[in-house]
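Subject: Protein record for review, amino acid sequence with C-alpha cells
Why sent: The fold of this protein is of interest and is recorded here as C-alpha cells.
Enclosed: The protein record, placed directly beneath this head.
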Amino acid sequence: MKSAKNGRDGRTRIIEGALRRFSQDGVSASTLASLREESGVSVGSFYHHFASKEHVFGVLYSETLVMYQEAFVTELTRHEEARAGIEGIVTLHMAWCGEHPERARLLVSERPPRREEPGGAEVAETRRTFFRQVSDWWRPHTKAGLLKPVDATMCYVLWLGPAQEMCRLWFAGAHQPTEAEIKELAEAAWASLRM
C-alpha cells in the first residue's frame, strides 16, 4: 500500500531507509527500531514486507549487487579490446561508487549474505551468472595471449583491489580520488592482468 504522504509504498520506504541506516551505522549497529524510524513505517507494515533486519539486508544487498553487476557487464561487453575493457571497468567502478555511494558502501563494507541467510541464494545465483559473463568476455583475450589466465578471486583482486581500497578511503572521508588517480588505477589494473 502506498503512503498518501509521499506516494511510495512501505517496502520502498523500508529499503530506502535501511540503505541510509546501513550506510551510516553499518548493518550490525542498525536496529530494527532504527529501520522503522528511518522509513516511517509501523511495526505491522515492516513485518508485512520483511521478516527481520537480516531479511531487509539480504534483499538490499542482492538488489544492489544486481545493479552493480548489470552496469559492469554492460560496460565490459561494449569493449572488444582487452585493455579498453580492463581500464573501462576500473573507471566504471569508480564512477558507479560515486553515483551510488550508499549502495557502494554496502558492497564494500558488508559481508554478503551466506547461502542459508535471507538473500543468500539470490546473491549466489547472481554471482554465478556474473562470473560466467565475465569469463565469456575474458576467455578469448586469454586465448589470444592478451590477458593472464587467473581464477575469479585473483582476477577481482588484481583488477579492482586498488580501486576498492581507494573507495574505502573516499567513503571514510580521507581522500577524494582525482581523474588522474582513477586513470592511474585503470592503468595499474591493465599492467597487473596483461600477459
User: Anything to note?
Assistant: The longest helix spans residues 53-77.
